[in-house]
Amino acid sequence: MNIDTTGIEYIVKKVMAEIDCAEEGGKPLKDGELGIFNDMENAIDAAFIAQKSFMRASMAFRSKIIAAMRAEMLKKENMEMICQMAVEETGMGNYEHKLLKHELAATKTPGVEDLVADAFTGDDGLTLIEQSPFGVIGAVSPSTNPSETIICNGIGMLAGGNTVVFAPHPSAKKTSALVVKLLNKAILEAGGPENLIVTTVKPTIDSANTMFASPKITMLCATGGPGVVKSVLQSGKKAIGAGAGNPPALVDETADIEKAGKDIIDGCCFDNNLPCIAEKEVVVVEQVADYLIFNMKKNGAYELKDAQKIKELEELVIPGGRLSRDYVGRSAKVILKGIGIEVDDSVRVVIIETSKDHIFAVEELMMPILAIVRVKDVAEGIDLAVSLEHGNRHTAIMHSTNINNLTEMAKRVQTTIFVKNGPSYAGIGVGGEGYTTFTIAGPTGEGLTSAKTFTRKRRCVLVGGFTIK
Ligand code: NAD
């Protein structure tokens, strides 16, 4: 992708300043303009009113709106501005990778075509199972994929005939507000109504809780860590929980080791390891471990071996066992600099051989630090990979050419995404078949969410008619 950064910084600062101004309740944004409200209750009311008429809109009209949303998000200047803002505001991630993720969400999130009816016909007539809107959905979005989650949830939820209130992560509030604004602009220009997608200027845990409790919200969808997933599951409403992962990459002795080394580094460093699907630790069969490490180093891995430096790194990124937000989503270069090691941009991941219970293997770090744990054989490897995944049911990766080993791992690990012989991002449609999503619902079982996830199945029964068998 040809990136033109000229002038983007200026525009980003201007938009951020405009949103700052609105946050203080002042101009230029009027309350409710382009879906941005000062108050959560008002945002919910507006989305509630909007849904009443939107549920009657034709599928052609929904499609038109969704096409306009995609087109707006794919405008070069918007993509660049949003992705630059996301990096600047959150202090996390890699601008070029954010462009790819953003483009992926805008192009490969399914629309209304995802809503396929089921039918039963026979002597007693015709029974249709159709997918109806839930109503107003309250969606919590993370700091790690701010624009992507709003695009992806926005398209899927509107395709299902719902309206949506977003409660974005406070540390990505400006980026999230900008995306909501641009989506509303696109909807209005396409002849659509106001307030199909709304949010608040100043999202907080309190405003999210107001949303969870509102009787006007009929479904909640949380994309984030364990805290927020637990909160929505306790709400008493229909809730979709897309929670944390700690994806292991297991490599056995039958794998194509050159390819595995490259794939693991490519997947691990994507957006500085922010994606919940990204490789977070490697489990490798002893027989091929040295050659795998050799191939990882050939593809941009820096191996840290000095015990003192490893200790320093631990204290830097996870002091007292709590993840340092200063290093989440930062590059390998910045992380190594923190312990006094200068490297150039060709270094993409820090690899470290550890024991199986080292904090680097056990914790979801969301930074390009990859623990590598040796095991004697694939059986021990599967046991360990399953335990490091912590029952999140999120993502696992395996490199192997032995179908029995792959099958055994798939059965044991029970993850929502299982990528065989590729980088983790193949699991969300980058170099792997299938649509994309940025809300992977492992805990509640909807899997890779799409428009149909955000609908209710309803049965319509016509007695004694329309069967032509
Ligand atoms: P986070 O859990 O800190 O925040 C997510 C959202 O939840 C934010 O909007 C935050 O304000 C809100 N929130 C947090 N605790 C809350 C509470 N108790 N009540 C109400 N709202 C609350 O997550 P993050 O750091 O932005 O994102 C990273 C985490 O999200 C990682 O664990 C990652 O694996 C996970 N994630 C999962 C998916 C998925 O599809 N399964 C996608 C992206 C991120």
TrEMBL record:
<dbReference type="GO" id="GO:0008774">
    <property type="term" value="F:acetaldehyde dehydrogenase (acetylating) activity"/>
</dbReference>
<keyword id="KW-0560">Oxidoreductase</keyword>
<dbReference type="InterPro" id="IPR016163">
    <property type="entry name" value="Ald_DH_C"/>
</dbReference>
<feature type="domain" description="Aldehyde dehydrogenase">
    <location>
        <begin position="38"/>
        <end position="298"/>
    </location>
</feature>
<dbReference type="InterPro" id="IPR016162">
    <property type="entry name" value="Ald_DH_N"/>
</dbReference>
<dbReference type="InterPro" id="IPR015590">
    <property type="entry name" value="Aldehyde_DH_dom"/>
</dbReference>
<protein>
    <submittedName>
        <fullName>CoA-dependent proprionaldehyde dehydrogenase PduP</fullName>
        <ecNumber>1.2.1.-</ecNumber>
    </submittedName>
</protein>
<keyword id="KW-0520">NAD</keyword>
<dbReference type="InterPro" id="IPR016161">
    <property type="entry name" value="Ald_DH/histidinol_DH"/>
</dbReference>
<dbReference type="Pfam" id="PF00171">
    <property type="entry name" value="Aldedh"/>
</dbReference>
<dbReference type="InterPro" id="IPR012408">
    <property type="entry name" value="Acetald_propionald_DH-rel"/>
</dbReference>
